[in-house]
Amino acid sequence: NGVTSLRDPGHPFTFYQSIAFTKKLLPRIFLTGPHLDYPPVAYGQQATLVRSSEHARQIVQDYVKQGSSGIKIYFRLPLQYYPDVVKTAKVHKIPVFAHLELVTATDAILAGVNGIEHVTSFGTSIASKEVKEEFERKVDQNNNARQEERYRLWASLDMNSPKIREVIKLVIDKGIVVCPTLATFERQADSSGVEDFRVKGFKNMLKFVELLHKAGAKIVIGSHSSSLYSKHGWTYQREMELLQMIGMTPLEIIKSGTVNNAIYFGNSSRLGSIEEGKQADLVLVDGDPSSDITAMYKIDRVMINGNWVIE
Asked: What separation in angstroms does the CA of 76 have from each of 48, 101, 153, 172?
C-alpha cells in the first residue's frame, strides 16, 4: 500500500524476531522496544515497568544496544522519571516521544521530550481544572476509562481558550514534533451509533491540529493502527485526507510523511527525499498527489532500496 518505512513505537523487540527468517520483502522497520510504563499497567506484554531512576536509565541503554531508534513513554510513567529517560536518550542521540493521559503535555515538553504521540495527549493541558481532574481521577482508577473520557474531555474544550495558545507556543518554542494520528480518533456525525460528544470531541481535535499547523508546528504522519473510516491497511492514506481537512496542502502532507518523518527518525541523511546518494525508496501513483491527495490510494509501483517490489 505504498509504505516503504514504518516506526513501531512500543512493541518489544521479540515481536519482530520472525523478520530474521522471512524471505519476503518488508518495509524498513524502526523499532523502539517496549514502551516505558508504570503500574497498574495498561498493556503489560508491550511494556517495561520502570522501578527507579537508575532503572529508567538502564532501560534506555539496554534498548539502544538492541537497536532502538527512539524511546516511547506511556501514559502511567510518573513525570519524575522523564528527565532520566530524556537525558540518557539524548546521550545516544535518539528521540523520546510520549503518549500522555495522566502527565500533561506541558509538563512532558518542559521535561524534554522530542515528540508527542496522538492529538489526545494535549487534552489535559488545555482542559479546565475541573474537567482535567475528573478525567485524571477516572483514568487513574481504570485504564480503559480513557476510551470514552478523552472524547468527553475534548468535547468540553473552548477552542478559543488562552490555554490553547500557550500550549501551541510551547510546542513551537521547543521544536516539538506532533504525530496527531487523527484517523484513530475519527468519529463523524453521519456514522450510526456515534454519540454526539464523540463527534464534538473529534471536531475539536481537528481544530487543535489546524491551529498547530497554522502556527507552524512540526507535524508528521502516523497511522497508529486502524480507523473506523478506512479499510485495513489504508489508515495512513486516511490520515492524509484528514490533514488536508485541517488546511495542509497536499505537498505539505507528502512532506510530513517523507522528509519530516525522516528528520524525526534521525535518518534524513539517507531517507525522506529523492536525492543523489540517498536510498532509493519510490512510490509511483496513478494521479497527481500534489493536487489530489486521494491519488495516494492508487499505488502503481513501489521501490525499496533501489529494487522494485511492486511492478
From this structure: 12, 8, 18, 25
Over residues 59-90, the pLDDT tens digits come to: 999 999 999 999 999 999 999 999 999 999 99
CA distance 203 to 61: 40
Judge whether 27 and 4 are in contact, CB under 8 Å: yes
Q: Please determine, for residue 191, whether its predicted confidence score (pLDDT) is greater than 90.
A: no
Instruction: Name the one residue in this structure whose C-alpha cell is 517490489.
Output: 309
Strands across the sheet containing 282-285: 282-285, 299-304, 307-310
Q: Please tell me the distance from the alpha carbon of residue 131 to that of residue 162, in angstroms, as a whole number.
A: 16
Cis peptide leading into 40, omega within 30 of 0? yes
Cβ-in-10-Å burial (0-12, 13-18, 19+) of 144 comes to: exposed
Report d(CA 231, CA 251) in Å as an integer: 24
- Please give the Cα distance from 253 to 46 (Å, whole number): 30
Determine the Cα–Cα distance for residues 70 and 117; give it in Å rounded to an integer.
Answer: 13
Question: CA-to-CA distance for 272 and 58, rounded, in angstroms?
Answer: 31
97 close to 117: Cβ distance less than 8 angstroms: yes
Cα 81 to Cα 207: distance, rounded to the nearest angstrom: 32
